[in-house]
Amino acid sequence: MKKEDSIFIAGHRGLVGSAILRRLRADGFNRLLTRTRAELDLTNRQAVDDFFAREKPAIVIVAAAKVGGIKANNDQPVEFLLENLQIQNNLIRAAHESGASKLLFLGSSCIYPKHAPQPIPESALLGGPLEPTNEAYAIAKIAGIKLCQSYAREYGANFISAMPTNLYGPNDNFDLETSHVLAALLRKTHEAKTSGSRAIVVWGSGEPRREFLHVDDLAAACLFLLQNYDSPEIINIGAGKDLTIRELAELICEVVGFDGDLDWDRSKPDGTPRKLLDISKIESLGWKPAIPLRQGIAQTYAWFQAHHR
């Protein structure tokens, strides 16, 4: 991977893609290809084929996806399955046919079984039933992994797949209907503080354990893998430590400055009991996360305040 390589970042406006774009620019990569959804519909096979035939990117980063939290996944399984399959099939196939030298496919920790061993090693993939609340999204991502591995096996393509844990940071989705837990809690807590509310309602029991990685750490890991990893076998990217949702909510309250109560709505689903990735594989290659959770939440809250009035 050279500084003069043309690099297409699919999904450059999202949480992940925007962080990768920032990182590549900061590191001096100057042939960066981006397209908005209005400029290029990634679900349109012909449009994607035409783009790749014209631009011929050397490196392709698949950070585009339809994403959401438990509620969105539960409510729209058809859309989560179909749209993600269309996007990744179009991008992966077109990358091969246009001669891309390397592709990075970004999956998700939800590809692993609901009751996977903890921390979750890469070998746990397909080792048991998935978490039902995000099964459609997970199946789409597993299909993307298998497609990349198939191109590697059949055609020798250097297509790699990385599995990030739960992410947060600038450009996150803070919509309460479709956001993930950290962003949703941050917004709920901020709104409770500014409105003078004395309590916020939080889904579930607060007992499930999750890990959270700042998206700038993920971007650094993606660049590291593009430069140092060429195996079709999946590789985890995580923070290496987890906490309960209750502990996360309390930490967010501290950062925001909200001293009201947390009301736990146990009628709502908890999701997977625990989800901590084993990151020994990527650490053995020389990468590790750098942004502590409290610092990252404070940075994200400052960004939220600057961009959400």
Task: Summarize the structure in words.
By secondary structure, the protein is of the alpha/beta class. 43% of the residues lie in helices and 15% in strands. It has ten helices and 13 strands. The protein has helices spanning 15-26, 45-55, 70-75, 77-97, 135-155, 181-195, 215-228, 245-256, 280-285, 293-307, and strands spanning 7-10, 32-33, 59-62, 102-106, 159-164, 166-168, 199-203, 209-210, 212-214, 235-237, 243-244, 261-265, 274-275. The strands form four sheets. The chain has a six-stranded parallel β-sheet with strand order 2-1-3-4-5-10, sandwiched between helices. A three-stranded mixed β-sheet has the order 11-8-13. A two-stranded parallel ribbon has the order 6-9. α1 (15-26) links the parallel β1 (7-10) and β2 (32-33). The longest helix has 21 residues, at 77-97. The radius of gyration is 19 Å and the shape is globular. The mean pLDDT is 95.
